[in-house]
Write a structure and sequence with these properties.
By secondary structure, the protein is of the alpha/beta class. It contains 19 helices and nine strands. The chain has helices at 26-36, 56-62, 78-87, 100-103, 108-114, 139-145, 148-151, 166-189, 199-214, 221-238, 243-260, 263-277, 280-288, 315-325, 335-340, 342-353, 358-364, 385-394, 419-423, and strands at residues 17-20, 40-45, 67-70, 91-94, 119-124, 193-198, 296-300, 306-310, 372-374. A six-stranded parallel beta sheet has the order 3-2-1-4-5-6, sandwiched between helices. Strands 7-8-9 form a three-stranded antiparallel beta sheet, covered by helices on one side. Helix 1 (26-36) links the parallel strand 1 and strand 2. Helix 1 packs across helix 8 (166-189). The radius of gyration is 28 Å and the shape is elongated.
Length: 425
């Protein structure tokens, strides 16, 4: 029985008209989501069409369910037609460099004078103002500027970008969120607004949260040492006291904890920590972050396939992993010591995983207790049972994320297919 509630009679953006002046990926993906939520998306294309039509399958995916209207914005007589379209729209999404829409007489200020209720969203690489605003750029440039490339480096310290165009896709979702919020506000105030979405803003938000969140610039080594001391004290309290070995281990952990929490040890740790921060090894460790842990990574199996193991700080998952890999001697190692001994522990985990085929591990592990998954080739992703289940719930083709597909969008339009109907010609 499907536990999901029945769908409403109409999708949430039913009756909302979106004028889409964007091409390629960021803007079209954003308006695909709006179309999937029920909006009437009118794609305004030049006579030559969206340049993404040269990659037909990509165009079909990100422009599903839209209508195509050909309008040559460079013609002198296009201004009146454009003004009429804007007056009847709820949302405008444009992806030109700053200043281009102004030359067409349809920048945010002009459009809002024509239609004060309009939500006008501009998506650009660097934003509508600032020293880089007029610069051209693509996804790799934005990843490079915001630290994404610096965080991803190979064994030779060569930086590289994410294979997915995350600047394009993340800014698209930022645009969707901002447009929906502005539409909600308009329902209360009756007034629209201009939205300035810069691809670098979203990526900078992501890299800041991840980099500063896990490795604060003002973090001191004494904090790590004190945390290790508290962990050892808790470990000692939890150690069974029966037998000579248990008593000795508990006493050793308590002595180590007391020493680590001394003020002179904290001062010494901070001094050493500052020196360590200046080393190449530390910078590499900082970039790796979670991937520096011995239990967070991709491990080759006996049949040449790959298993992902993603344990962060959960002792229960680490113990279950060790149990499944037959590594009982290290199951009780606390997280701080797993970090210190990461290189050796990772070799042990890798060697254990390499002894069996991927299918063995997927069947062997209790996946409710151990976070593992196969590394699936991209052309086999649709066959995964969980992903297929999620898509089947909507009955819609792959496109927007499943929870944002409120209506089946239909096919992408032919160039100019709806021009006559939209312009009344």
């Amino acid at each position: 029985m499907d536990p999901s509630p029945p769908a409403p009679a109409q999708p949430p953006l039913h009756g909302v008209r979106v004028l889409d002046f964007t091409q390629n990926l960021p803007g079209p993906y954003a308006t695909l989501v709006l179309a999937s939520l029920g909006a009437d998306v009118v794609k305004i294309e030049p006579p030559t069409g969206d340049t993404a039509r040269m990659t037909p399958r990509l165009f079909e995916i990100v422009n599903a369910g839209k209508r195509s209207c050909v309008l040559d914005l460079k013609r002198d007589d296009a201004a009146a037609t454009l003004a009429a379209l804007v007056a009847d729209a709820d949302v405008v999404v444009e992806g030109f460099r700053p200043g281009v829409m102004a030359r067409f007489g349809c920048d945010a200020a002009a459009a809002l004078r024509t239609n004060p209720r309009l939500v006008y969203c501009s998506i650009s690489g660097y934003g509508q103002d600032g020293p880089y605003a007029a610069y051209p750029g693509h996804d790799l440039n934005f990843q490079a500027l915001t630290g994404v490339c610096d965080m991803g480096r190979d064994a030779d310290d060569h930086p590289f970008g994410c294979a997915l165009p995350i600047a394009d896709l993340s800014s698209a979702m930022t645009a969707v969120s901002a447009v929906l919020a502005a539409l909600f506000a308009r329902e209360r105030t009756g007034v629209g607004r201009a939205i300035d979405v810069a691809m670098v803003d979203t990526l900078r938000s992501w890299t800041h949260a991840w980099a500063e969140g896990l490795t604060p610039r003002d973090a001191r080594a004494s904090g790590l040492v004190a945390g290790l001391g508290r962990t050892l004290r808790a470990h000692a309290a939890a150690t069974p006291h029966g037998g000579a070995l248990g008593t000795a281990l508990g006493a050793a952990a308590r002595r180590a904890s007391s020493w680590l929490e001394r003020e002179d040890v904290a001062r010494g740790a901070d001094a050493v920590g500052e020196r360590i921060k200046r080393t190449a090894a530390f910078r590499k460790l900082v970039r790796l972050r979670l991937h520096a842990l011995p239990h967070y990574g991709l491990f080759r199996t006996r049949d040449g396939r790959w298993l992902s193991i993603a344990i962060v700080d959960e002792d229960k998952f680490w113990r279950a992993l060790c149990e499944g890999l037959d590594l009982p001697r290290v199951a009780g190692v606390p997280l701080p010591l797993r970090m210190v001994g990461a290189a050796a522990l990772r070799r042990w985990v890798a060697a254990a995983v390499a002894r069996r085929d991927l299918d063995h591990w997927l069947a062997h592990f209790d996946r409710a207790r151990v976070p593992v998954a196969a590394v699936v080739p991209i052309d086999e992703v649709a066959d995964d049972p969980q992903l297929a289940w999620r898509l089947a719930r909507t009955g819609a083709p792959v496109g927007a994320p499943v929870p944002l597909v409120m209506t089946s969008p239909g096919p992408a339009p032919r160039l100019g297919e709806h021009t006559a109907a939209i312009l009344g010609r």
